[in-house]
Specification:
313 residues, 11 strands, 2 domains, D-Maltodextrin-Binding Protein, domain 2, 34% helix
Length: 313
Amino acid sequence: MKKGLAVVGLCLSLAACGASSSSPSSSTSVPSPTTSLGSEGVETSTSAANTPQTTVAKKNNSTTTVATCSKPADKGSITVLSASSMVNVFNDLKAQFLAEHPCVTAINFSYGSSSTLATQIVNGAPADVFVAASQTAMDSVTNARVNASPAFVFARNQGEIMVYPRSNYRNNISTTQDLHDSRNSGIRIGLCVASAPCGSLANNILTNSRTVYSNTTLTRSGIADTEAASVEELVTKIELGELDAGIVYRSDCEYAQPRSLAVCVELPSNVNVSNAYLGTGMNTRTVTSQFLAFLASSWFKTNIQVKYAFLAP
């Protein structure tokens, strides 16, 4: 009888040991893929009072099913030549696009001034998609008939004064008049070159400023100490403290401000101007069409307005 009890006890002990020694690696749960801006719910970040709201509706991506390319023959990478003011948007949303489009094996972005990129495309530079920050730059491509799909507007942007947060002039800048040396002696101001869309934007803002403030000194030569080839270059110079301030796109300044890289000064509507952002394809490849559809989607447009301070088309 005691022997039987011993056997039962031994069995119970072995069962308990077996339960406690199960390896975690034997679990069948599958870790969720990265779903930045992709899972059900909202994402909220804290920013300065005058920055745009950053609560963004996310796509429903609760399933762990991994998408596969239904037509392997369509697989391939795409090259996007884009205005440099889109760098923050594309850097943040690239993973989202790739996760949803398995036929796209990689995206290669090349950033610069829209006018420079347009010239490169017309002269034969390889590209699948062109994203321009001005109608003029896009027109140079479409007029040369080197694009394969109609250009479309997906957003707009406007100007803003970006100030280095530790500049001695930080509290002295409230209008474009304050960018002139007569108001703030020794202030270092930068603008994009006139041929770049951000430079053309600055020129139009200064033209309006001369009228609104009756101040003929508010010219490019009157305020600029240096010129940058692109807005990305100008923003970097301000963030590093090489310049005290400059006229940049609102989207760039509002992206930098909550990261303590800039202080943004909004411009009044009778001084400010806006420009269009457009996309077009250089070919009819499936992956090219997918990226253009991504740009044109209501989800993309909503995100760049709410999170990156762009304007509606």
